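Human: Not sure, check this?
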Amino acid sequence: MLFTTRTRGAFTLIELLVVIAIIAILIGLLLPAVQKVREAAARMSCQNNLKQIGLGLHNFHDANERLPHGGTQSPASGYGHSWWLLILPHLEQDNTFRQLDLKGTTSAHTGLVYSGTNQANGTLLAGKGQPMLFCPASPLPRFVLVGSIAGSTAGVASPTYTGIAGGIGHSTALNRDAETYAHSGIGITSRGGMLASHESHKFLDATDGTSNTMVVAEQSDFCRNAAKAPFDCRSDFGHSYAMGPGPAGENRHWNVTSVRYAINNKTWENKGVGDTYYGQNRPIQSVHSSGANVLLADGSVRLLTDATPLQTLYNLANRDDGNVVNF
């Protein structure tokens, strides 16, 4: 008996095109899922950063029976330093903290660290930046003052989180929208929060409840003007996480914000945001699609959505306004 064998020929062009089309469809279906997983992972990492910052603040409170000042003027009457520097020992940076000049010994300034100011602190902090200072998804530069630090080509860390000085609805609110001098604070400033400059508060001062009071919030994206051009709208104003206030009458506050605008309102032209140098109402905003992360005084972290009502946001920013918070 004779047997014949049949050999399979090569794929035809049409078959190849069909296979390629199927692969393209599968990739198209898979990419959004992968993107969502990455976004969720970045958001969770960002929340973990805030939890570590919250732990540092709580440890500071345990050791000192109060939170750090939101900003402290230099004892030598120059520009001072931020709350960030004061909690360094509780962020596993005790060695760095011990070497800092926070008394104004080497310069009248303590947190102003570029060349010609407190060069000792600038050189010490140059190139150092704990991962917890930065949201991993943020497109913002991690270091500022690059090339301006004496004896170093590195810059100083610029965090993607800021302290909450208060909300504009508080009784301490001061309206400086009409200020014309660029080197004064412009916008509405508040001292109703837990991290206001020149003030130090206990958790007991949060009479609205520690679970209803924000302490730190995210600023991890660019703001944009009407032409869609990006602008860095973090509350350190390019001066780094070290920077703190001068005399109280200047109403210039670094590394804290007075809450005025809705979550993820990134409009650069808003009063107190894009004003030359020192707008005091830079928004809580993020690169996350659904909202921005905030640290509450009880140590918990919440994602506040873009739809959070402004009044709720003000209530969360103030420690003692007596208003009921629903979020």
Notes: The helical segments are 13-64, 83-86, 94-99, 119-125, 310-317. The mean pLDDT is 92. The first helix runs from residue 13 to 64.
